[in-house]
């Protein structure tokens, strides 16, 4: 059993005897209220969706799925196509990728894991840290050096995220795919 706050996008749980994949999970702790996890779930069999709210420490049953290493090949709307070591194609619907879709781009070198349920690919898990190039960002503002100064940067695939103020166009940066946060400059 796992607590609700341990579930991430792409993981699958047994809820009322059916398999549900987590498309999105948000942890909220506000004021004196108990911490809660708002999730967006999709039923793997029927395709129905729901957005339940769990207490952060609610116990939920995870479903163990088959996994296989794959690399991104191409996008055939609405399917993302990946290739395994034996050149078999693995197709995953865009809506099942969750936040991973923000980091998928043509020619990406990262080896991902395809997740299978009853023989069907249901999601892709990216490496914990990935390296992407900043396609555009504004120059750093002079004199704005107190505290942790962040600014918006756009990646090659159009996704925008917050980066440190010293990052410039064309720099390679490390991103934590679990949180979607900037980690630092990529080491050469």
Automatic annotation (TrEMBL):
<dbReference type="GO" id="GO:0043043">
    <property type="term" value="P:peptide biosynthetic process"/>
</dbReference>
<keyword id="KW-0648">Protein biosynthesis</keyword>
<dbReference type="Pfam" id="PF01132">
    <property type="entry name" value="EFP"/>
</dbReference>
<dbReference type="InterPro" id="IPR011768">
    <property type="entry name" value="Transl_elongation_fac_P"/>
</dbReference>
<dbReference type="InterPro" id="IPR020599">
    <property type="entry name" value="Transl_elong_fac_P/YeiP"/>
</dbReference>
<keyword id="KW-0251">Elongation factor</keyword>
<dbReference type="GO" id="GO:0005829">
    <property type="term" value="C:cytosol"/>
</dbReference>
<dbReference type="Pfam" id="PF08207">
    <property type="entry name" value="EFP_N"/>
</dbReference>
<feature type="domain" description="Elongation factor P C-terminal">
    <location>
        <begin position="130"/>
        <end position="185"/>
    </location>
</feature>
<dbReference type="InterPro" id="IPR012340">
    <property type="entry name" value="NA-bd_OB-fold"/>
</dbReference>
<dbReference type="InterPro" id="IPR001059">
    <property type="entry name" value="Transl_elong_P/YeiP_cen"/>
</dbReference>
<comment type="pathway">
    <text>Protein biosynthesis; polypeptide chain elongation.</text>
</comment>
<dbReference type="GO" id="GO:0003746">
    <property type="term" value="F:translation elongation factor activity"/>
</dbReference>
<protein>
    <recommendedName>
        <fullName>Elongation factor P</fullName>
    </recommendedName>
</protein>
<feature type="domain" description="Translation elongation factor P/YeiP central">
    <location>
        <begin position="67"/>
        <end position="122"/>
    </location>
</feature>
<dbReference type="InterPro" id="IPR013185">
    <property type="entry name" value="Transl_elong_KOW-like"/>
</dbReference>
<comment type="similarity">
    <text>Belongs to the elongation factor P family.</text>
</comment>
<keyword id="KW-0963">Cytoplasm</keyword>
<dbReference type="InterPro" id="IPR015365">
    <property type="entry name" value="Elong-fact-P_C"/>
</dbReference>
<comment type="function">
    <text>Involved in peptide bond synthesis. Stimulates efficient translation and peptide-bond synthesis on native or reconstituted 70S ribosomes in vitro. Probably functions indirectly by altering the affinity of the ribosome for aminoacyl-tRNA, thus increasing their reactivity as acceptors for peptidyl transferase.</text>
</comment>
<dbReference type="Pfam" id="PF09285">
    <property type="entry name" value="Elong-fact-P_C"/>
</dbReference>
<dbReference type="InterPro" id="IPR014722">
    <property type="entry name" value="Rib_uL2_dom2"/>
</dbReference>
<dbReference type="InterPro" id="IPR008991">
    <property type="entry name" value="Translation_prot_SH3-like_sf"/>
</dbReference>
């Amino acid at each position: 059993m796992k607590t609700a706050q341990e579930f991430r996008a792409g993981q699958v749980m047994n809820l009322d005897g059916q398999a549900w994949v987590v498309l999105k999970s948000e942890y909220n702790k506000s004021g004196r209220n108990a911490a809660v996890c708002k999730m967006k779930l999709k039923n793997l069999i029927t395709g129905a969706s729901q957005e339940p709210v769990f207490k952060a420490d609610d116990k939920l049953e995870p479903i163990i799925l088959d996994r296989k290493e794959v690399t991104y090949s191409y996008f055939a709307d609405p399917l993302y196509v990946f290739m395994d070591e034996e050149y078999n194609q693995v197709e995953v619907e865009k809506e099942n990728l969750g936040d991973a879709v923000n980091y998928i781009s043509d020619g990406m070198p990262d080896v991902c894991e395809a997740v299978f349920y009853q023989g069907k690919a249901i999601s892709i898990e990216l490496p914990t840290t990935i390296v992407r190039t900043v396609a555009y960002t504004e120059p750093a503002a002079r004199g704005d050096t107190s505290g942790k100064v962040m600014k918006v940067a756009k990646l090659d695939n159009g996704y925008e995220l917050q980066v440190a103020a010293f990052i410039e166009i064309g720099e390679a940066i490390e991103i934590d795919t679990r949180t979607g946060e900037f980690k630092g400059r990529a080491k050469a």
